[in-house]
Write a structure and sequence with these properties.
The complex is a heterotrimer of chains A (157), B (315) and C (35). Chain A is mainly α and 157 residues long. In chain A, 77% of the residues lie in helices and 0% in strands. Classes of the chains: A mainly alpha (157), B mainly alpha (315), C mainly alpha (35).
Chain lengths: 157, 315, 35
Amino acid sequence: MAVLSWLEASGVSTWVREGETIWAYPTILTLHTFGMGLLVGASAVVDLRLLGIGRRVPLAPLRSLFTVAWGGFWLNLVTGSLLFAADATRRGTDPLFFTKLVFVAIGVATVVSIQRSMSNAPGNPVPGGGSEKVMAAVSLAAWIAAVTSGRLLAYVS
Amino acid sequence: MDSLTIPHLHLLLNHVPTVGSVAGLGLMLLALIRRNDHLLRASLEVLFVVALATLPVYLTGVAAGTAIEEMDGVAVNAIRTHETAALVAFIWMQLTGLAAWLALWQSRRIPRPPRANVGAVLLLSVLTVALMGRAATIGGEIRHPEILTSPAAAAAGAPAGWLTSGAIADFVTQYPWVWPAAEALHFLGLCLVLGVLLAVNLRILGAMKALPFSALHRFLPWGMLGFSLNLATGMLFFISAATQYTENIAFLWKVIFLALAGAHFLYLTVFTNTWSLKADADAAPLDKLVAVAGISSWVGVIYWGRMLPFIGNAF
Amino acid sequence: MSLILAVTLVVIVAVALLGAAGRWVDASADRHEGN
């Protein structure tokens, strides 16, 4: 609790929260939205392919999309940390926020797993592989849950 | 341009869905009679573009209604009735545009647009033309007493029924979960659109070279689904809280970028220079420029959308 | 809490409908190509 208060009172956090400039909270929030779009969007395209959309499209070249996804992830780790710090005492004790983090963690885990399995089978379309389909479904569900719980933070907390 | 007020803009733009839907339908009928595939595709493209353009028409209409309702000689109830009729017509126009887009997407990979799909567009556009005509006629009664056929209509109270802006606004107020749910869906739709459009445009820019463009073209319907979801949720936001958008400069910019993005979407769907991009082929510099513009338009949509609470009102 | 539940349900239903629509379009593309 003390850590959270310290975090929230820090110079950076105060600037994010109270800086009367568009470059503070609004910009950081907008970048966070972009990061979400990149991460969830790129991941979704791969997931859809694994679930059988456009099943004759070769899988391996889609690996480039992971670059986009990871770019979004790092952007959101940074912007998310700033957003958290600016409101640390509230978010740090909020079950809904932790729920969001759990879903993000699951989503990241699925992205890592899918990326690994795709680099092991270059050029081959997934042969209707059960485990890849399950992983893609879990990935989509986790990201949908993460985005939803993230949006709900504005209403519930 | 200073004298071009919002009501004036609405009066200019409202010719697009009325005349445009008739033109699109007419072109389609001509195409079917002449059994001409090029004309058929052209009619589908016209209907899609008209559907896109109908969005700012509705939006300026709501703003115009607010602007003129205090004026002398204005039949206020006619404004409400017109708005309701316009909303219905708008919805069917969008469904027509969606069906037209689908036919255009399909006709990339088969010799001609699927018959069932074209039939659906035909029926939908006939209905749309009728509904647009009805909305336009009622609209005329707002300020044109010379065409008023039944004074009773203008004197009648606000329209009842569930598909009125009043009913929708009440629904949102009554059930607190509606707005947050719509927002969550709006963000999910954003992710889907950005993901698909980024993937498609990145191929043009040189990523995923092992794939032909046609492989990524296959994913476009998912982008369109995201776009449609966001159009629907966006309309819910607008209808239930119109003034927070019509008085917001950020919203104007968002709609402008949406129009660009929509046009670019059509370009990706039907243009031959991108479709014919084979595996390992490099796109022409101009095509790459257009791809960058396309990505930028979506960046613009997201930026202005996210900035709505900050730029329009607070700062 | 009921807000979270309601929103979750709406999102699940909407995503399911969206997914079904997308799958249908994709399948129709396969059909037309004769796959």
